[in-house]
């Protein structure tokens, strides 16, 4: 074991770097709104019951026909686009925070789903997906049979 001299300034600098990182991630780039910097992210709620997954996605201003949902095994992908409104030439914007652009969200679920039995509803800007679990993914119960005789069976002569 080697001894190192304690330098309090080293710890202060590392604390400063941690605070800078925290503040930059929290305030400069709104978490959950931007993915890789170009496409908007899609906020999701995912719940699981014994037989199905229930997903809810907030998509205000998106038309249902502009959303594409694909499923493969245990992976679900939702794609679409938040369309920008035409800017008014005579208007001067003081603030523009609403996002626009393409979005894509891929979620890996804990078990495969049966996509052909899935249901999708779109109401008030919220997409609700009800995705039944695949039959092979549902738990099966194994029943215990009668106990077998211990040892080889012997014939009486």
Strand content: 25-35%
CATH architecture assignment name of the domain at 34-84 and 99-136: Sandwich
What's the overall geometry?
flat
CATH hierarchy, class of the domain at 34-84 and 99-136: Mainly Beta
Distance from first to last alpha carbon: 79 Å
Main sheet overview? 4 strands, antiparallel
Share in helix: 10-25%
* Average residue pLDDT: 79
List how many beta strands DSSP finds: 7
The ordered string of helix (H) and strand (E) elements is HEEEEEEE
Structural class: alpha+beta
Supply the number of helical segments: 1
Strand order of the largest sheet: 1-2-7-6
| Rg from Cα | 28 Å
CATH topological fold name of the domain at 34-84 and 99-136: Immunoglobulin-like
Low-confidence stretches: 28-39
Give me a quick take on this structure:
This protein has 157 residues and is of the alpha+beta class.
Fold and architecture overview:
It is a single chain. With 157 residues, this protein is α+β, with helices and mostly antiparallel strands. It is built from one helix and seven strands; from the N terminus they run αβββββββ. The relative contact order is 0.17.
Question: Topology of this protein?
Answer:
Elements: H1 8-28, E1 44-48, E2 52-58, E3 68-72, E4 75-82, E5 101-108, E6 119-123, E7 126-132
Antiparallel strand pairs: 1-2, 2-7, 3-4, 4-5, 6-7
Which properties best describe this structure?
flat, single chain, 4-stranded antiparallel beta sheet, 1 helix, 3-stranded antiparallel beta sheet, 157 residues, Immunoglobulin-like, alpha+beta
């Amino acid at each position: 074991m080697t001894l190192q001299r304690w330098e309090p300034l080293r710890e202060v600098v590392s604390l400063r770097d941690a605070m800078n990182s925290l503040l930059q991630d929290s305030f400069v780039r709104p978490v959950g709104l931007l993915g890789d910097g170009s496409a908007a992210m899609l906020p999701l709620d995912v719940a699981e019951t014994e037989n199905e997954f229930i997903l809810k996605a907030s998509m205000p201003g998106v038309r249902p026909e502009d959303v594409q949902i694909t499923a493969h095994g245990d992976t679900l992908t939702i794609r679409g686009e938040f369309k920008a409104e035409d800017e008014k030439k005579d208007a001067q914007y003081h603030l523009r925070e609403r996002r626009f652009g393409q979005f894509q969200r891929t979620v890996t679920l804990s078990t495969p789903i049966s996509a052909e039995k899935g249901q999708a509803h779109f109401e008030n800007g919220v997409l609700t997906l009800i995705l039944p679990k695949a039959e092979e993914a549902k738990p099966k119960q194994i029943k215990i049979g009668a106990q077998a005789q211990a040892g080889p069976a012997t014939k009486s002569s």
